[in-house]
Task: structure prediction
Amino acid sequence: MLFLDSFAVSCQSRAMALDIKICGLKTDKTLAAALAGGASHVGFIFFAKSPRYVEPAEAGRLREAAIGKAKAVAVTADAGDAFLDEIVEKMHPDMLQLHGSETPERVTEIKARYGLPVMKALPVSEAVDLERIRPFVGIADRFLFDAKPPKGSELPGGNGIAFDWRVLAGLDAGVDYMLSGGLNAANIGDALRLADPPGLDISSGVESAPGVKDPALIEQFFRAVRAARDTSAA
Ligand SMILES: O=C(O)c1ccccc1N[C@@H]1O[C@H](COP(=O)(O)O)[C@@H](O)[C@H]1O
Result:
């Protein structure tokens, strides 16, 4: 069991609300599908090599439809201040997701500069990787656990690869996080049963091609989540 005694975050009861972030949105139609399904968070990717990249001003236009419905998350990886300034100014995110090798010091700096909550992404493949949480405790507002990128991948996330969710079983219940990496309608039941996460984050699993979100797959994912939760409550 990984104990994080000093980690005082407002963590939802695992049995209650489940946050769901649909990430890598680029169109009005797919954003509408995410909101219709009940997404708590919608994510926009600001990583140039990603097929999901969106310009900050366009993300700012898109995210207006989510105001009052879902939190808009700006996803970056090792971005510099100038780019972050532009994103914050043009998109007005509710939260920043830092998906690179940002240090605790850099996360502290970013939080102070923008006054926004930060979700720190950490790559996981085995239980020992969860030790990486420690230096960010009291700094990051939330964690996002993603699979390690495969060799040769140019993307730090959005690779559609899952890790062994059983490693999360030993995590302290006070750690607020989103589970991500390779989730889809077919495997979400197992992910919920094995990890019982407070939040989910999905991208490739609701796409018909890299970077192309499919409203029908988004709807199917939400249906699968509801079915899995109904089954476990029964
Ligand atoms: O999606 C991307 O292209 C991306 C680029 C740079 C940093 C993070 C990125 N995506 C994040 O990774 C998760 C998991 O993606 P997947 O479901 O395995 O495809 C995604 O939800 C984003 O938070």
